[in-house]
């Protein structure tokens, strides 16, 4: 898409198309447990060619568990689990509420623009997404299947507070009477957000669903399990097909699809029985940019020198490097889970079981601690997945 072109209802942003890097990756065979597919594909990748990029330390994982702060773990998991209840919004019904926070999860992207967003908007990626979705709700902008398709780049800029243009400069050197505006460094993020929402709206309408919430409700009415919802989400929407094909083999991550299912469970498990998923503990880490940084900080994984140099300088990683870092964090998390739930481990359990989903909550929240927030994270801008 050109720098000054508005997106019409007949085309999607090229930026979004390019960022959907997993849309052509072969999906797991029908009947496959998608959580197992994530565990097995990431483990195989790290064991084979991924090991040259990132190594995972099993002994360090055991040491980490032996010194685990259970009280802090319980506190942070509780806080993350309750985020949907803290939205400063009123809803007409549960479906409207479900639709809103599911769209927030659908849009949990932009981590690669973190520094640019702070400079341009004064907010990080996650806060930018929540801010924008709250604005859409307060302004009563329709976010059903039809409404998502009708959004424009200007709407995204206005609601999410993402500037489309940066500084002005003379059109000709030395002539200040006529100036042109340069594209803002965060404009590609606005285009990606628009693409996600427009494409999701089109597909919902194509499949006969009135809204994203309508899709989730009907899928969970079919089968009330997290794995079923995740599989259907990944198959239906390219913006949730979080996978990469490295050396001819797929590596599955499925971060946002799992996050949606997890938050649906946390918010509605007590009030809507179709969302009280019995398999929630089978989920894997929702691997983004924060969690790998925390896993590395705790000494459980070590990137190669080339990746570390890029992380230290906040340089953008390649798809293969990004996949390796995220996959390694999932492998490390499984080592923690296996040891923490073994007879060998002497750590006293707390309020929450130690599984990959609760570890993700803990490490994500831990990454917001002032002393840990300064740790450099992996940067990847060309993605719709985190």
From TrEMBL:
<dbReference type="GO" id="GO:0016787">
    <property type="term" value="F:hydrolase activity"/>
</dbReference>
<keyword id="KW-0378">Hydrolase</keyword>
<dbReference type="InterPro" id="IPR019438">
    <property type="entry name" value="Q_salvage"/>
</dbReference>
<dbReference type="Pfam" id="PF10343">
    <property type="entry name" value="Q_salvage"/>
</dbReference>
<comment type="similarity">
    <text>Belongs to the QNG1 protein family.</text>
</comment>
<comment type="function">
    <text>Catalyzes the hydrolysis of queuosine 5'-phosphate, releasing the nucleobase queuine (q). Is required for salvage of queuine from exogenous queuosine (Q) that is imported and then converted to queuosine 5'-phosphate intracellularly.</text>
</comment>
<dbReference type="GO" id="GO:0006400">
    <property type="term" value="P:tRNA modification"/>
</dbReference>
<protein>
    <recommendedName>
        <fullName>Queuosine 5'-phosphate N-glycosylase/hydrolase</fullName>
        <ecNumber>3.2.2.-</ecNumber>
    </recommendedName>
</protein>
């Amino acid at each position: 898409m050109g720098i000054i072109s508005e997106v019409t209802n007949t085309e999607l942003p090229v930026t979004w198309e390019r960022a959907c890097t997993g849309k052509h990756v072969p999906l797991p065979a029908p009947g496959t447990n998608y959580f197992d597919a994530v565990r097995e594909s990431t483990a195989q990748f790290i064991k084979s060619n991924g090991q040259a990029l990132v190594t995972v330390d099993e002994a360090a994982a055991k040491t980490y568990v032996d010194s685990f702060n259970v009280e802090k773990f319980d506190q942070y998991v509780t806080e993350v689990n309750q985020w949907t209840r803290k939205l400063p919004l009123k809803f007409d019904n549960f479906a409207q509420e479900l639709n809103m926070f599911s769209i927030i999860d659908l849009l949990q992207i932009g981590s690669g623009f973190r520094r640019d967003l702070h400079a341009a908007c004064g907010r990080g990626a996650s806060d930018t997404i929540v801010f924008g979705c709250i604005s859409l709700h307060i302004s009563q902008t329709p976010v059903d299947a039809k409404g998502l398709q009708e959004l424009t780049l200007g709407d995204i800029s206005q609601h999410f507070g993402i500037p489309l243009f940066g500084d002005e400069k003379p059109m000709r050197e030395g002539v200040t009477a006529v100036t042109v505006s340069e594209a803002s460094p965060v404009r590609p993020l606005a285009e990606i957000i628009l693409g996600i929402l427009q494409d999701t709206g089109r597909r919902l309408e194509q499949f006969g669903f009135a809204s994203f919430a309508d899709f989730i409700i009907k899928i969970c009415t079919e089968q009330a399990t997290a794995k079923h919802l995740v599989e259907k989400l990944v198959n239906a929407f390219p913006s949730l097909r979080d996978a990469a094909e490295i050396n001819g083999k797929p590596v599955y991550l499925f971060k946002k699809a799992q996050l949606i299912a997890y938050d649906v469970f946390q918010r509605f498990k007590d009030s809507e029985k179709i969302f009280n998923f019995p398999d929630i503990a089978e989920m894997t880490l929702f691997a983004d940019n924060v969690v790998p940084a925390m896993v590395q900080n705790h000494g459980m994984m070590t990137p190669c020198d080339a990746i570390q140099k890029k992380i230290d300088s906040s340089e953008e990683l390649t798809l293969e490097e990004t996949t390796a870092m995220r996959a390694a964090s999932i492998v490390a998390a499984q080592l923690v889970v296996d040891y923490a739930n073994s007879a060998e481990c002497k750590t006293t359990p707390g309020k929450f079981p130690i599984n990959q989903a609760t570890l993700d909550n803990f490490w994500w929240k831990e990454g917001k601690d002032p002393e840990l927030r300064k740790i450099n994270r992996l940067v990847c801008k060309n993605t719709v997945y985190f």
